[in-house]
Design brief:
By secondary structure, the protein is an alpha/beta fold. It contains 22 helices and 23 strands. Helix 1 runs parallel beside helix 8. The termini are far apart.
Length: 617
C-alpha cells in the first residue's frame, strides 16, 4: 500500500531544530487546496519556478503572479530540472520545477538524477493523474513515484488534500536537510476544493561538527602527521565552510586540493591551493596527494571516478591515513577505507578540529616553511607543464584551432566573479585543467552522473539566482544539440548568458574510445552541421551567434560576449576546433575487442592505436 511519505536516506548529524512542537492549538485558515500549496511555497521563500505550463496544476499556477512567484516556461522539462539544479547550487536555496503529469514528468528523470549526484536541493513537483481514473490507463497516466525512487532523498505523495500544506512543506524541508532532490507528487484533482490549513514554517535543521570521539581521533591523527593534505569537496561549498577550511589550512600550512568538478571549493589564488584531482586535473594536486601521510577529505564522498589515475600516474596513496568528514554516514568509508570517519558538517568539523589541534603538539608545524616552498614549486612546474601540453602542436590543424589553446585563451579572458557550467564530453572535461575560481558557488558541472545537455540550462538557472554575475556555459557540439533549444528560453525570458560551443563535428569522448580500442572505426561518432553552424541557429532564435575560427580572436570575442551579456544579450560563440582529443575517460573500463565468429574476425585488435588521435584530423 502506498504511504503518504517515504524517507529513504539516512539523516545527517543534527541537533535542536527551529520547529516548534508546542501542544497549543494552531488556528487554521480556510482556503482552497491550491492556495494552501502556493502559500507553502511562499513560506519556503520560493520566488522562481521552472517548468512547462500544464492543465494538471493550472489552478495553482494561476495565482503564482499574485503570490510573487515567477514562473519561467522552458523549452523542455529536462531543461527546467537542470535550471532548478543550477539555481539551487548558486543560491544555496531550493530549486523548483513543475510540469504536466505523465510525459512532462518523465522528462524530469535525467535532470533529477543529475541533481541527486550533485546533492542539489531540487524540489520536483509532479502532478499526477486524477484519483477517480488512476489505474485505467487514461490520458498522460504513468505511475510516477517508482520513477524517482532511486534518485530522490524523499518522496511525498499527497494522499489526502487536507495534507497539501503539510507534505509540501516537508518536501521542501527535507531537500535542504537531506541535501538532495525531493519529489512532491500531487493528484491533479487535489488542487481543487477547500479545506482548513495551517501553513508550516520552514524546518531548519542545525548541523553539528560530528561526534566528539571521532573529532578527537581526527585531530590526533592530523597532529601526528608529518605531511598532511586537505582534500576539499562539495560539502565545503554546500555548508558555507570555506572560511573554516581556510583557517585550518593556514594554521597547518598544508596544501589544499579539490575533488573532481569542485574546483570552486578553495580559492585558486590562495598560496596553499594546488588544484583539482580527477580527469585532466592538476599534477600539483596529484603529487601532493601521492606523498601525503594523512589526507583530510573534507565534505567529500570520495567518488571512485574522481581519483582514477591520470597522466600515467596512479596518485592515490596506498599507505596514507584517511580522515573522511561527510554529513551522510552511509558515504563514510563506502568507496575508500578510512581510518577516521566524522559524520558532520565540513565547516563545523574543520573549526572543531582546529580547536583541538591548538591544544596539542602538531608535528607538521616545524616544516611549514619548507612545505610552502614545495607547494609553490609544484604549482610553478605544473603551470609550465600545462603550457607545454597546451602548445605542444601548431595553433591550427587544417585551419582549425587546437582545443586546449582555446581553453587557455578563455581562461585568461575569464572575468572575476564568473559562474561556469560545463557539459560532459572530451573538450569540456579537458577544461578541468583550466578552470580556476576564487570564490565558491562558481562552478556548476553535471558531476559523476555525466549527462549531456546539462550546461546551458544549468547556467541559466544560476543566472536567475545571481543575475549580477557573468554566466558561461561550455558545451561540445554533440551535447549542445541536446540543449540548444533553451536559447529560445534565454531570449524570451531575458536570462542573458554566454555559451561557448566547441565545434569539431564529433562525439569526442566516445570517438576517443574508437580511436584507441576499435581500430578507428567511427560508428556513430562523426557529426555534420548545417551551413552557418550553431551560430546561425542562435541568430535565428534571437540571440547573437558568432563563429570564431582564429585563436587570436578568442579572447576578444569572449570579452565582448560577456559585456553584451551584462547588458541583457545572450551570445553563442561557436569555436571551430580541430578533432584532436584528450585522454579517454574510462581506460579502466575498456578492452580491445576479441571476436569469435569468422564474419567479425576482421574487427579483432591486439594493440591500441599508435597515435592515439583520430585518423581524420
Amino acid at each position: 500500500m502506498l504511504t503518504a511519505v517515504r524517507l529513504v536516506k539516512s539523516q545527517p548529524a543534527r541537533v535542536a531544530s527551529s520547529r516548534s512542537f508546542s501542544t497549543t492549538q494552531v488556528p487554521r485558515t480556510k482556503m482552497s487546496n491550491s492556495e494552501a500549496f502556493v502559500e507553502t511555497l511562499v513560506a519556503q521563500g520560493v520566488t522562481d519556478v521552472f517548468g512547462i505550463v500544464g492543465s494538471a496544476f493550472m489552478d495553482a499556477l494561476d495565482i503564482f503572479p499574485a503570490a510573487g512567484i515567477r514562473f519561467i516556461p522552458t523549452a523542455h522539462e529536462q531543461g527546467a530540472g537542470h535550471m532548478a539544479d543550477g539555481y539551487s547550487r548558486v543560491s544555496n536555496r531550493h530549486g523548483v520545477c513543475v510540469a504536466q503529469n505523465g510525459p512532462g514528468i518523465t522528462n524530469f528523470v535525467t535532470s533529477v538524477a543529475a541533481a541527486y549526484w550533485a546533492h542539489s536541493p531540487v524540489v520536483a513537483i509532479t502532478p499526477e493523474a486524477g484519483t477517480a481514473t488512476k489505474g485505467y490507463g487514461g490520458f498522460q497516466e504513468v505511475d510516477q513515484l517508482p520513477l524517482f525512487e532511486p534518485i530522490t532523498k524523499f518522496q511525498a505523495h499527497v494522499n489526502n488534500p487536507t495534507r497539501m500544506a503539510e507534505l509540501t512543506g516537508r518536501a521542501f524541508d527535507y531537500a535542504m536537510s537531506e541535501r538532495g532532490p525531493t519529489q512532491l507528487n500531487i493528484p491533479r484533482d487535489f488542487f481543487y476544493g477547500d479545506n482548513d490549513f495551517v501553513i508550516p514554517k520552514p524546518f531548519v535543521v542545525e548541523r553539528s561538527a560530528g561526534g566528539p570521539q571521532s573529532l578527537e581521533a581526527a585531530a590526533q591523527l592530523l597532529a601526528s602527521a608529518s605531511n598532511p593534505v586537505i582534500l576539499a569537496g562539495g560539502g565545503v561549498v554546500m555548508g558555507n565552510g570555506l572560511e573554516q577550511l581556510t583557517t585550518l589550512a593556514e594554521y597547518l600550512s598544508i596544501p589544499v586540493a579539490t575533488t573532481y568538478l569542485h574546483n570552486d571549493a578553495f580559492p585558486a589564488n590562495h598560496p596553499l591551493w594546488v588544484g583539482p584531482l580527477g580527469y585532466q586535473g592538476a599534477q600539483a594536486a596529484m603529487k601532493s596527494i601521492k606523498e601525503a601521510d594523512v589526507i583530510l577529505a573534507l565534505g567529500s564522498r570520495l567518488s571512485p571516478f574522481g581519483t582514477l589515475p591520470q597522466y600515467g600516474m596512479n596518485y592515490w596513496p596506498t599507505d596514507a591515513k584517511i580522515i573522511q568528514v561527510e554529513v551522510d554516514h552511509r558515504r563514510i568509508g563506502l568507496v575508500k577505507p578510512v581510518d577516521v570517519g566524522v559524520c558532520g558538517d565540513a565547516g563545523l568539523a574543520a573549526q572543531a578540529i582546529l580547536h583541538l589541534l591548538k591544544q596539542r603538539k602538531v608535528a607538521c608545524l616545524s616544516s611549514a616553511d619548507e612545505r610552502k616552498k614545495t607547494v609553490a614549486q609544484r604549482k610553478k612546474e605544473w603551470d609550465a607543464q600545462l603550457d607545454d601540453i597546451t602548445n605542444s602542436e601548431p595553433a591550427s590543424v587544417d585551419g582549425k584551432m587546437k582545443p586546449r589553446q582555446v581553453l587557455r585563451a578563455l581562461e585568461k579572458a575569464m572575468p572575476e566573479n564568473v559562474m561556469v557550467s560545463t557539459d560532459i564530453g572530451n573538450v569540456c572535461s579537458v577544461s578541468n585543467s583550466y578552470l580556476r575560481f576564487n570564490k565558491p558557488r562558481s562552478f556548476v558541472a553535471p558531476m559523476t552522473f555525466g549527462n549531456c545537455g546539462y550546461s546551458l540550462p544549468a547556467i541559466m538557472g544560476a543566472k536567475v539566482a545571481a543575475p549580477e554575475r557573468p554566466a558561461v556555459a561550455y558545451a561540445g557540439d554533440g551535447a549542445w544539440g541536446m540543449s540548444a533549444i533553451e536559447i529560445l528560453t534565454a531570449v524570451r525570458e531575458n536570462i542573458p548568458v554566454t555559451a561557448c560551443v566547441f565545434s569539431n563535428k564529433q562525439w569526442g569522448a566516445e570517438k576517443k574510445n574508437q580511436v584507441l580500442w576499435f581500430g578507428d572505426r567511427y560508428v556513430g561518432s562523426n557529426l555534420t552541421h548545417p551551413d552557418g553552424g550553431f551560430a546561425g541557429i542562435a541568430n535565428s532564435m534571437g540571440a547573437t551567434g558568432i563563429q570564431v575560427r582564429s585563436l587570436d580572436e578568442v579572447g576578444d570575442a569572449f570579452k565582448s560576449a560577456i559585456e553584451a551579456q551584462m547588458k541583457g544579450q545572450t551570445t553563442v560563440l561557436e569555436f571551430e576546433i580541430s578533432k584532436e582529443l584528450g585522454d579517454p575517460f574510462r581506460r579502466d573500463a575498456m578492452r580491445l575487442p576479441v571476436r569469435r565468429l569468422d564474419k567479425y574476425a576482421h574487427t579483432t585488435l591486439y594493440e591500441e592505436s599508435a597515435t592515439g588521435q583520430p585518423t581524420d584530423l
